[in-house]
Amino acid sequence: MTRIAGMAGNRGRNLLNIADREPGGAEFAVILATDADAPVLEAAAERGIPTEVVPLADELSRREHEERVLEALSNYEFDLVCLDGYMRILSDTFLEETPTTLNVHPALLPSFPGMDAWGDALEAGVSVTGCTVHVVTDATDENGAVVESEVDAGPIVTQEPIPVYEGDDEDTLKDRVLYECEFRAYPRAVKWFAEGAMDVDLEAGDVTVDADVASTDGDDHDGLPARRLVSDDRADTLRYGENPHQGAAIYTDYTCDEASVVHADQLNEGAKALSYNNYNDADGALNLIKEFDEPAAAVIKHTNPAGCATADSLSKAYEKALSTDPMSAFGGIVALNRECDAATAEQIVDSFKEVVVAPGYTDDALEVLFEKENLRVLDVGELNDDHTERFTEKPLVGGRLVQERDLQSISVDDLEVVTEREPTEDELETMVFAWQTLKHVKSNGILFADGTETVGIGMGQVSRVDAVRLAAMKADEHAEGKDSQGAVMASDAFFPFPDGIEEAAEAGIEAVIQPGGSVNDEDVIEAADEHGMAMAFTGQRSFKHD
């Protein structure tokens, strides 16, 4: 376990943050202050951390003071020294007798060294500042006098940037540098030290950190880098967030080359701007129709497909997608993977829609669509097979989850038939379509399909058998001109019990595609065989929780 000797001049908030977080299992052996009234001493004592005080005195030289500090620390065992507002330049008298010493400086060194980094940054008018954790090196001459050019010049361990906002003053910038930069960077550096990932070579003036290699390949972490630095620019302030009491904005990454609703042109400029929910739904709709090479259309409501289909023509695909659940499609988002023509546009405006997304529009189609005053018409440009955005993320309170995008796809050859009855060629084609569509349905998700069109979708249920019942109800009560008789059922995860198959059989399902892998697979397969169903396993799950 790494033991730390902390040295502070006043509140020592960085030291207390490290003490509370114990990065890499590190603990404080002692905290020393130069003022007996320093608040850090009481806060350390409350945490059970021993404390020492070595006051600054005019009659003591720098080296004499450091000798007293060393004497005060001599009763403690420690592997690392962490400074926090110590306000005293250290010389070789201290540094040569102690382990590695770290300090955090409130600027991105080598910019703005010295005592007033915040004010210097504001005066310089920079748009980005931050903090730097560095190794402390001797910044004095042989007489103990400070050499200004050597102050804050030790090897850099890590840095953390933040933007400087218009209207920032020294107090607001100090707070944000502390809480958004130092509270991240300093514990990170301590963790690396505690885990043996940091190598300090003072002769070469270098620090290397194995854990800070931002690799994008390799087996250890599936290409997920040790640290992600994300910088997006605010493109627009939105009317509100998911609800009117929530503020919201849309930020853009200008390096993204993939077709995106963030970068799409809104062709009818007089219509309302997109809302938070519009962006979210339109993004989900666009990602869904990117799955297909054939003309495809989807209608999305609350990020779930209300219907999806492929066909020989775009207008036919839209007709089939809409007929899955035209009631739920009211006020939804339409996505197309072909240039929108007039025939498709005529169908779209036949009922209320919020947004239509497509890779282009004919003039005749635009004339039709523009008749609807507040139908937002988005042109995302050319669709291609490039997926330049590798990761998706979900912010959490206190952090964020990051994962690779679900870009899995299957073919008929990937399926493992596990029932006595083999699927027909048409059923196999439908299985593939259903699986690619189901990837975009909130789990627990069940999808009924016939040919290459949806007939019933059960999404977001806490019970898989309830999702089957919901899909059956949708097909029976909401679908127009089609039903679940003879359809294929897709499940985004395995069936834990045969009850889902029993419900599907009652709805008229004749074939099933699912991942498999349940301890009860044999019972589920037996139930399918009893009903004359064909069943194929994909061997891969397709949960979508967000």
Describe this structure in words.
The strands form 6 sheets. A 7-stranded mixed sheet has the order 3-2-1-4-5-6-7, sandwiched between helices. The protein has a 6-stranded mixed sheet with strand order 12-17-16-15-13-14, with helices on both faces. Strands 20-25-24-23-21-22 form a 6-stranded mixed sheet, sandwiched between helices. Helix 8 runs parallel beside helix 9 (342-348). It has helices spanning 13-21, 39-46, 62-73, 92-95, 117-124, 170-194, 276-289, 314-324, 342-348, 363-369, 425-438, 464-477, 499-507, 521-530, and strands at 3-8, 27-33, 51-53, 80-84, 101-105, 128-135, 156-163, 198-201, 206-209, 233-237, 249-252, 265-266, 296-301, 304-310, 332-336, 353-358, 376-379, 391-396, 399-404, 416-417, 446-450, 453-458, 488-491, 511-514, 534-537. The model has no long low-confidence stretch (mean pLDDT 92). With 546 residues, it is α/β, with parallel strands linked by helices. The chain is built from 14 helices and 25 strands. It is elongated and about 95 Å long.
Summary?
The chain is an alpha/beta fold and 546 residues long.
Helices and strands, with pairings:
Layout (H helix, E strand, L loop, with lengths): L2 E6 L4 H9 L5 E7 L5 H8 L4 E3 L8 H12 L6 E5 L7 H4 L5 E5 L11 H8 L3 E8 L20 E8 L6 H25 L3 E4 L4 E4 L23 E5 L11 E4 L12 E2 L9 H14 L6 E6 L2 E7 L3 H11 L7 E5 L5 H7 L4 E6 L4 H7 L6 E4 L11 E6 L2 E6 L11 E2 L7 H14 L7 E5 L2 E6 L5 H14 L10 E4 L7 H9 L3 E4 L6 H10 L3 E4 L9
Parallel strand pairs: 1-2, 1-4, 2-3, 4-5, 15-16, 16-17, 23-24, 24-25
Antiparallel strand pairs: 5-6, 6-7, 8-9, 10-11, 12-17, 13-14, 13-15, 18-19, 20-25, 21-22, 21-23
